[in-house]
Amino acid sequence: KQEVTQIPAALSVPEGENLVLNCSFTDSAIYNLQWFRQDPGKGLTSLLLIQSSQREQTSGRLNASLDKSSGRSTLYIAASQPGDSATYLCAARRAAGNKLTFGGGTRVLVKP
Amino acid sequence: DGGITQSPKYLFRKEGQNVTLSCEQNLNHDAMYWYRQDPGQGLRLIYYSQIVNDFQKGDIAEGYSVSREKKESFPLTVTSAQKNPTAFYLCASSISPLGYEQYFGPGTRLTVT
User: What is the C-alpha separation between A72 and B95, in angstroms, rounded?
Assistant: First the structure.
């Protein structure tokens, strides 16, 4: 059974610092992994989808890496801004038609 | 404007009452999903539907029911059999169930007292 863990549960950084968010999964046989952002009381916004054949995916200041052999994905956010404050969740999919398994999320606060 | 709508945003019910949460999408997506989120936790899958008139149980289906009579709509009923119904409920859709990105609605916060 796939388990997804995100540590730490909360993170506080000064504005301008790079953010590094971790996601670990127990079953390396994943199909893809998706990173989401969630603002308080809101739904999820998809940030990046990284396929199992990819090592990384980039969008603007965001970069996600995937290392299946070690069961880890990392989301990097360059030059953080107060507007990046939110909860970030990762979710792994085991097979093409299978469900997403979510981590518990990392709550990020970027202080001006 | 394409997207997923959920209504209402906040819902209050007395214990013992059934309640139905609405989810509508105009993205022409085949697959739709219902998740539950408890404070400080990730999402858990309740039910999903890969195509009209078909749906499957997720990890925590007990006390919930769904229907998929139209492609655009996937309502979730929280029955009185659900022991801890107070939670944030999120609906999602994807173009197909075959590993594509899931897109989420704004959520409904249900409080049962």
Answer: 27
